[in-house]
Protein backbone atom coordinates (compact mmCIF):
# COMPACT_ATOMS: atom_id res chain seq x y z
CA UNK A 1 0.00 0.00 0.00
CA UNK A 2 1.32 3.46 -0.94
CA UNK A 3 2.17 6.09 1.68
CA UNK A 4 -0.68 8.39 0.61
CA UNK A 5 -3.16 5.52 0.97
CA UNK A 6 -1.88 4.77 4.45
CA UNK A 7 -2.26 8.43 5.40
CA UNK A 8 -5.79 8.48 4.00
CA UNK A 9 -6.77 5.44 6.04
CA UNK A 10 -5.20 6.88 9.18
CA UNK A 11 -7.08 10.15 8.73
CA UNK A 12 -10.33 8.20 8.33
CA UNK A 13 -9.70 6.52 11.67
CA UNK A 14 -8.95 9.75 13.53
CA UNK A 15 -11.71 11.07 15.74
CA UNK A 16 -11.78 14.35 17.64
CA UNK A 17 -13.06 13.08 20.97
CA UNK A 18 -12.50 16.46 22.63
CA UNK A 19 -15.46 17.94 20.70
CA UNK A 20 -14.01 21.40 21.12
CA UNK A 21 -13.53 21.11 24.88
CA UNK A 22 -10.27 21.58 26.74
CA UNK A 23 -8.52 18.25 27.23
CA UNK A 24 -6.02 17.83 30.05
CA UNK A 25 -3.03 15.77 28.97
CA UNK A 26 -1.49 13.24 31.35
CA UNK A 27 1.73 11.27 31.34
CA UNK A 28 0.66 7.63 31.11
CA UNK A 29 2.62 4.38 31.36
CA UNK A 30 1.25 1.37 29.49
CA UNK A 31 2.59 -1.96 30.75
CA UNK A 32 2.44 -4.61 28.04
CA UNK A 33 2.75 -4.41 24.27
CA UNK A 34 0.16 -6.99 23.28
CA UNK A 35 -3.09 -6.22 21.48
CA UNK A 36 -4.68 -4.60 24.55
CA UNK A 37 -1.58 -2.50 25.18
CA UNK A 38 -1.31 -1.36 21.56
CA UNK A 39 -4.96 -0.34 21.45
CA UNK A 40 -4.54 1.52 24.75
CA UNK A 41 -1.50 3.37 23.38
CA UNK A 42 -3.44 4.42 20.29
CA UNK A 43 -6.47 5.71 22.18
CA UNK A 44 -4.38 7.51 24.80
CA UNK A 45 -2.38 9.25 22.07
CA UNK A 46 -5.55 10.19 20.22
CA UNK A 47 -6.83 11.80 23.39
CA UNK A 48 -3.64 13.86 23.62
CA UNK A 49 -1.86 12.06 26.44
CA UNK A 50 1.90 11.51 26.61
CA UNK A 51 2.48 7.75 26.59
CA UNK A 52 5.43 5.54 27.51
CA UNK A 53 5.02 1.81 26.88
CA UNK A 54 6.85 -1.06 28.58
CA UNK A 55 7.18 -4.52 27.02
CA UNK A 56 9.51 -7.18 28.38
CA UNK A 57 9.68 -9.11 25.11
CA UNK A 58 11.77 -8.16 22.12
CA UNK A 59 8.69 -7.72 19.91
CA UNK A 60 5.28 -6.14 20.21
CA UNK A 61 1.92 -7.90 19.80
CA UNK A 62 1.90 -10.35 22.71
CA UNK A 63 0.35 -13.72 21.89
CA UNK A 64 0.24 -12.80 18.20
CA UNK A 65 4.04 -13.00 17.97
CA UNK A 66 5.14 -16.33 16.55
CA UNK A 67 8.24 -18.15 17.72
CA UNK A 68 9.23 -21.75 16.96
CA UNK A 69 10.69 -22.08 20.46
CA UNK A 70 9.09 -24.42 22.96
CA UNK A 71 9.58 -24.63 26.69
CA UNK A 72 12.42 -26.74 28.05
CA UNK A 73 10.26 -28.92 30.31
CA UNK A 74 7.42 -30.65 28.42
CA UNK A 75 5.95 -31.99 31.67
CA UNK A 76 5.78 -28.53 33.23
CA UNK A 77 7.01 -29.64 36.66
CA UNK A 78 10.41 -27.91 36.69
CA UNK A 79 10.06 -24.49 38.40
CA UNK A 80 13.27 -23.31 36.71
CA UNK A 81 12.11 -24.19 33.20
CA UNK A 82 12.46 -21.78 30.31
CA UNK A 83 9.16 -19.97 29.79
CA UNK A 84 8.05 -19.08 26.25
CA UNK A 85 5.27 -16.51 26.47
CA UNK A 86 4.33 -16.29 22.80
CA UNK A 87 1.60 -18.75 21.88
CA UNK A 88 0.77 -18.26 18.21
CA UNK A 89 0.43 -21.21 15.87
CA UNK A 90 2.68 -21.20 12.82
CA UNK A 91 -0.43 -21.73 10.69
CA UNK A 92 -2.07 -18.51 11.96
CA UNK A 93 -5.30 -20.44 12.45
CA UNK A 94 -5.60 -19.33 16.05
CA UNK A 95 -3.78 -17.41 18.75
CA UNK A 96 -3.94 -20.37 21.10
CA UNK A 97 -0.80 -22.25 22.21
CA UNK A 98 1.69 -23.27 19.52
CA UNK A 99 1.84 -26.68 17.89
CA UNK A 100 4.40 -29.06 19.37
CA UNK A 101 5.81 -32.32 18.07
CA UNK A 102 3.74 -35.08 19.67
CA UNK A 103 3.94 -37.88 17.11
CA UNK A 104 3.55 -41.24 18.87
CA UNK A 105 3.67 -39.54 22.28
CA UNK A 106 1.33 -39.65 25.26
CA UNK A 107 -0.08 -36.17 25.81
CA UNK A 108 -2.12 -34.97 28.78
CA UNK A 109 -4.35 -31.97 28.06
CA UNK A 110 -5.67 -30.24 31.18
CA UNK A 111 -8.79 -28.20 30.47
CA UNK A 112 -11.90 -28.41 28.35
CA UNK A 113 -12.33 -25.02 26.71
CA UNK A 114 -11.15 -23.40 23.46
CA UNK A 115 -7.41 -24.08 23.60
CA UNK A 116 -7.92 -27.65 24.84
CA UNK A 117 -10.33 -28.37 21.99
CA UNK A 118 -8.03 -26.85 19.38
CA UNK A 119 -4.94 -28.66 20.59
CA UNK A 120 -6.71 -31.99 21.04
CA UNK A 121 -8.11 -31.78 17.53
CA UNK A 122 -4.69 -31.02 16.07
CA UNK A 123 -2.68 -33.68 17.87
CA UNK A 124 -5.09 -36.60 18.30
CA UNK A 125 -4.42 -37.80 14.78
CA UNK A 126 -0.68 -38.21 15.36
CA UNK A 127 -0.26 -38.75 19.11
CA UNK A 128 -0.20 -42.20 20.66
CA UNK A 129 -2.69 -41.17 23.33
CA UNK A 130 -4.41 -37.95 24.36
CA UNK A 131 -5.61 -37.87 27.97
CA UNK A 132 -8.06 -35.00 28.52
CA UNK A 133 -8.55 -33.92 32.14
CA UNK A 134 -11.84 -32.06 32.54
CA UNK A 135 -13.32 -30.09 35.41
CA UNK A 136 -16.88 -30.59 34.20
CA UNK A 137 -18.58 -33.92 33.55
CA UNK A 138 -17.70 -35.45 30.21
CA UNK A 139 -21.32 -35.79 29.20
CA UNK A 140 -21.94 -32.09 29.73
CA UNK A 141 -19.49 -31.03 27.04
CA UNK A 142 -21.27 -31.56 23.75
CA UNK A 143 -18.41 -30.86 21.37
CA UNK A 144 -16.07 -33.42 22.97
CA UNK A 145 -18.32 -36.19 21.68
CA UNK A 146 -17.83 -34.85 18.16
CA UNK A 147 -14.04 -34.93 18.57
CA UNK A 148 -13.79 -38.33 20.21
CA UNK A 149 -11.21 -40.68 18.67
CA UNK A 150 -10.11 -44.16 19.70
CA UNK A 151 -6.93 -42.79 21.32
CA UNK A 152 -8.72 -40.12 23.42
CA UNK A 153 -9.43 -40.71 27.10
CA UNK A 154 -11.17 -38.53 29.69
CA UNK A 155 -10.38 -38.15 33.39
CA UNK A 156 -12.13 -36.10 36.10
CA UNK A 157 -10.26 -33.12 37.49
CA UNK A 158 -9.26 -33.01 41.15
CA UNK A 159 -11.54 -30.44 42.78
CA UNK A 160 -9.35 -30.37 45.88
CA UNK A 161 -6.52 -28.47 44.21
CA UNK A 162 -6.66 -24.67 43.79
CA UNK A 163 -7.32 -23.19 40.34
CA UNK A 164 -5.52 -23.33 37.94
CA UNK A 165 -3.42 -26.19 39.35
CA UNK A 166 -6.25 -28.72 39.47
CA UNK A 167 -5.52 -31.64 37.18
CA UNK A 168 -3.61 -34.89 37.60
CA UNK A 169 -3.23 -35.82 41.26
CA UNK A 170 0.49 -36.48 40.93
CA UNK A 171 3.18 -35.90 38.32
CA UNK A 172 6.73 -37.21 38.64
CA UNK A 173 10.00 -36.29 36.95
CA UNK A 174 10.12 -39.65 35.16
CA UNK A 175 6.84 -38.84 33.41
CA UNK A 176 4.49 -40.92 35.57
CA UNK A 177 1.14 -39.24 36.10
CA UNK A 178 -1.60 -40.45 38.43
CA UNK A 179 -5.23 -39.42 37.98
CA UNK A 180 -8.05 -39.04 40.46
CA UNK A 181 -9.81 -42.09 38.99
CA UNK A 182 -6.82 -44.30 39.84
CA UNK A 183 -5.36 -44.47 36.32
CA UNK A 184 -1.60 -44.02 35.95
CA UNK A 185 0.25 -43.40 32.68
CA UNK A 186 3.71 -42.40 31.49
CA UNK A 187 3.30 -38.97 29.88
CA UNK A 188 5.62 -37.32 27.39
CA UNK A 189 3.93 -33.92 27.47
CA UNK A 190 1.52 -32.16 29.85
CA UNK A 191 -0.34 -29.18 28.41
CA UNK A 192 -2.11 -26.81 30.81
CA UNK A 193 -5.01 -25.37 28.82
CA UNK A 194 -6.47 -23.67 31.88
CA UNK A 195 -6.65 -20.12 30.60
CA UNK A 196 -4.76 -17.14 31.92
CA UNK A 197 -3.55 -16.78 35.46
CA UNK A 198 -3.69 -13.12 36.44
CA UNK A 199 -0.43 -12.13 38.09
CA UNK A 200 1.01 -8.67 38.70
CA UNK A 201 4.26 -9.07 40.69
CA UNK A 202 5.36 -5.55 39.75
CA UNK A 203 2.21 -3.91 41.14
CA UNK A 204 2.29 -2.87 44.80
CA UNK A 205 -1.00 -1.35 45.94
CA UNK A 206 -1.03 -2.04 49.70
CA UNK A 207 -4.05 -4.29 49.25
CA UNK A 208 -6.09 -1.95 47.05
CA UNK A 209 -5.90 -4.53 44.23
CA UNK A 210 -5.64 -8.26 44.87
CA UNK A 211 -5.83 -11.47 42.88
CA UNK A 212 -7.98 -13.99 44.74
CA UNK A 213 -8.78 -17.28 42.99
CA UNK A 214 -8.10 -15.52 39.68
CA UNK A 215 -10.44 -12.63 40.50
CA UNK A 216 -8.67 -9.29 40.06
CA UNK A 217 -10.34 -6.83 42.29
CA UNK A 218 -12.06 -4.90 43.30
CA UNK A 219 -12.41 -3.39 39.82
CA UNK A 220 -15.18 -1.07 38.69
CA UNK A 221 -16.44 -2.44 35.36
CA UNK A 222 -13.35 -4.70 35.27
CA UNK A 223 -11.14 -1.63 34.73
CA UNK A 224 -10.68 0.82 37.62
CA UNK A 225 -9.83 -0.11 41.24
CA UNK A 226 -12.10 2.31 43.16
CA UNK A 227 -9.47 3.24 45.75
CA UNK A 228 -6.87 4.11 43.10
CA UNK A 229 -8.97 5.39 40.19
CA UNK A 230 -8.16 6.86 37.80
CA UNK A 231 -4.45 6.45 38.55
CA UNK A 232 -4.45 2.73 37.74
CA UNK A 233 -6.57 0.99 35.13
CA UNK A 234 -6.63 -2.46 33.55
CA UNK A 235 -7.33 -3.24 29.90
CA UNK A 236 -8.25 -6.68 28.61
CA UNK A 237 -9.01 -8.66 31.76
CA UNK A 238 -12.51 -9.95 30.79
CA UNK A 239 -12.76 -13.04 28.62
CA UNK A 240 -15.49 -14.66 26.54
CA UNK A 241 -15.92 -11.30 24.81
CA UNK A 242 -15.27 -9.75 21.40
CA UNK A 243 -11.75 -8.88 22.47
CA UNK A 244 -10.76 -6.21 19.97
CA UNK A 245 -14.01 -4.29 20.49
CA UNK A 246 -13.73 -4.49 24.27
CA UNK A 247 -10.08 -3.37 24.25
CA UNK A 248 -10.93 -0.35 22.14
CA UNK A 249 -13.89 0.72 24.26
CA UNK A 250 -12.03 0.22 27.54
CA UNK A 251 -9.10 2.24 26.20
CA UNK A 252 -11.34 5.06 24.96
CA UNK A 253 -13.02 5.18 28.37
CA UNK A 254 -9.72 5.29 30.25
CA UNK A 255 -8.32 7.96 27.93
CA UNK A 256 -11.44 10.09 28.35
CA UNK A 257 -11.42 9.73 32.13
CA UNK A 258 -7.76 10.73 32.35
CA UNK A 259 -8.38 13.85 30.29
CA UNK A 260 -11.38 14.63 32.52
CA UNK A 261 -13.70 14.52 29.54
CA UNK A 262 -15.50 11.59 31.17
CA UNK A 263 -16.30 11.51 34.88
CA UNK A 264 -16.13 8.53 37.21
CA UNK A 265 -18.55 8.01 40.10
CA UNK A 266 -17.31 8.44 43.64
CA UNK A 267 -15.16 5.72 45.20
CA UNK A 268 -18.10 4.66 47.36
CA UNK A 269 -20.45 4.39 44.38
CA UNK A 270 -17.92 2.36 42.41
CA UNK A 271 -17.44 -0.04 45.32
CA UNK A 272 -21.19 -0.50 45.65
CA UNK A 273 -21.36 -1.36 41.95
CA UNK A 274 -18.55 -3.91 42.33
CA UNK A 275 -20.21 -5.50 45.35
CA UNK A 276 -23.54 -5.70 43.52
CA UNK A 277 -21.82 -7.44 40.61
CA UNK A 278 -20.14 -9.94 42.93
CA UNK A 279 -23.49 -10.63 44.61
CA UNK A 280 -25.08 -11.22 41.22
CA UNK A 281 -22.39 -13.78 40.35
CA UNK A 282 -22.77 -15.52 43.70
CA UNK A 283 -26.55 -15.71 43.32
CA UNK A 284 -26.03 -17.34 39.93
CA UNK A 285 -23.54 -19.85 41.41
CA UNK A 286 -20.71 -18.47 39.28
CA UNK A 287 -17.35 -19.46 40.83
CA UNK A 288 -15.06 -16.63 41.89
CA UNK A 289 -12.46 -17.77 39.35
CA UNK A 290 -14.97 -16.93 36.59
CA UNK A 291 -15.53 -13.33 37.72
CA UNK A 292 -14.12 -11.99 34.47
CA UNK A 293 -15.79 -14.56 32.21
CA UNK A 294 -18.55 -12.31 30.96
CA UNK A 295 -20.55 -14.73 28.79
CA UNK A 296 -24.06 -13.22 28.78
CA UNK A 297 -22.79 -9.92 30.21
CA UNK A 298 -20.38 -9.19 27.36
CA UNK A 299 -22.64 -6.98 25.26
CA UNK A 300 -24.13 -5.32 28.31
CA UNK A 301 -20.67 -4.12 29.35
CA UNK A 302 -19.55 -3.18 25.85
CA UNK A 303 -22.73 -1.19 25.19
CA UNK A 304 -22.32 0.55 28.56
CA UNK A 305 -18.73 1.49 27.70
CA UNK A 306 -19.79 2.73 24.28
CA UNK A 307 -22.40 5.00 25.86
CA UNK A 308 -19.86 6.38 28.35
CA UNK A 309 -17.47 7.15 25.49
CA UNK A 310 -20.11 8.73 23.29
CA UNK A 311 -19.86 5.92 20.74
CA UNK A 312 -22.72 4.02 19.10
CA UNK A 313 -23.65 0.69 20.72
CA UNK A 314 -22.26 -2.56 19.37
CA UNK A 315 -23.81 -3.16 15.95
CA UNK A 316 -26.42 -5.90 15.91
CA UNK A 317 -24.64 -7.66 13.06
CA UNK A 318 -21.57 -8.07 15.29
CA UNK A 319 -23.65 -9.61 18.05
CA UNK A 320 -25.46 -11.90 15.64
CA UNK A 321 -22.22 -12.96 13.95
CA UNK A 322 -20.68 -13.70 17.35
CA UNK A 323 -23.60 -15.94 18.33
CA UNK A 324 -23.55 -17.60 14.90
CA UNK A 325 -19.83 -18.33 15.25
CA UNK A 326 -20.34 -19.77 18.73
CA UNK A 327 -23.12 -22.03 17.46
CA UNK A 328 -20.88 -23.25 14.64
CA UNK A 329 -18.02 -23.82 17.08
CA UNK A 330 -20.16 -26.12 19.21
CA UNK A 331 -21.88 -27.90 16.33
CA UNK A 332 -18.88 -28.24 14.00
CA UNK A 333 -15.64 -28.16 16.04
CA UNK A 334 -13.66 -29.68 13.18
CA UNK A 335 -14.72 -27.29 10.43
CA UNK A 336 -16.24 -24.17 12.00
CA UNK A 337 -13.32 -21.95 10.92
CA UNK A 338 -13.88 -22.87 7.29
CA UNK A 339 -17.66 -22.94 7.23
CA UNK A 340 -18.97 -19.89 9.08
CA UNK A 341 -22.72 -20.21 8.90
CA UNK A 342 -23.87 -16.60 8.69
CA UNK A 343 -26.67 -15.15 6.63
CA UNK A 344 -26.00 -13.09 3.53
CA UNK A 345 -27.50 -10.10 5.33
CA UNK A 346 -24.86 -10.29 8.08
CA UNK A 347 -22.07 -10.37 5.51
CA UNK A 348 -23.52 -7.36 3.73
CA UNK A 349 -23.90 -5.39 6.98
CA UNK A 350 -20.32 -6.17 7.99
CA UNK A 351 -19.00 -5.24 4.56
CA UNK A 352 -20.90 -1.96 4.59
CA UNK A 353 -19.33 -0.93 7.91
CA UNK A 354 -15.79 -1.89 6.91
CA UNK A 355 -16.00 -0.05 3.59
CA UNK A 356 -15.69 3.26 5.42
CA UNK A 357 -12.13 2.33 6.40
CA UNK A 358 -10.98 1.43 2.89
CA UNK A 359 -9.90 3.64 0.04
CA UNK A 360 -12.25 3.02 -2.93
CA UNK A 361 -9.81 1.18 -5.18
CA UNK A 362 -8.95 -1.23 -2.37
CA UNK A 363 -12.50 -2.47 -1.80
CA UNK A 364 -12.66 -6.12 -2.84
CA UNK A 365 -15.79 -8.07 -3.66
CA UNK A 366 -15.68 -11.03 -1.24
CA UNK A 367 -17.69 -13.14 -3.71
CA UNK A 368 -14.95 -13.06 -6.36
Instruction: Sketch the topology as an H/E string, one letter per element.
Output: HEHEEHEHEEEEEEEHHHHH
Radius of gyration: 23 Å
Helix content: 25-40%
What global shape is seen?
Answer: globular
Biggest beta sheet summary: 4 strands, parallel
Quick one: how many beta strands? 11
* Strand order in the sheet with the most strands: 5-4-3-9
Quote the distance from N terminus to C terminus.
21 Å
Which band does the percent of strand residues land in? 5-15%
Query: What structural category characterises the helix and strand content?
Result: alpha/beta
Mean pLDDT: 79
Poorly predicted sequence stretches spanning 5 or more consecutive residues: 12-18, 94-100, 159-167
Structure overview:
This protein is an alpha/beta fold and 368 residues long. The chain contains nine helices and eleven strands. The protein has helices at 3-13, 35-46, 114-123, 142-147, 243-258, 267-283, 298-309, 316-331, 344-354, and strands at 27-31, 50-54, 106-110, 129-134, 152-156, 170-171, 176-178, 184-186, 189-192, 210-212, 215-217. The strands form four sheets. It has a four-stranded parallel beta sheet, covered by helices on one side. A hairpin with a 4-residue loop joins strand 6 and strand 7. Helix 2 (35-46) runs parallel beside helix 5, helix 5 packs parallel to helix 7 and helix 8 crosses helix 9. The chain is globular and about 65 Å long. One of its GO terms (molecular function) is flavin adenine dinucleotide binding. Its EC number is 1.-.-.-.
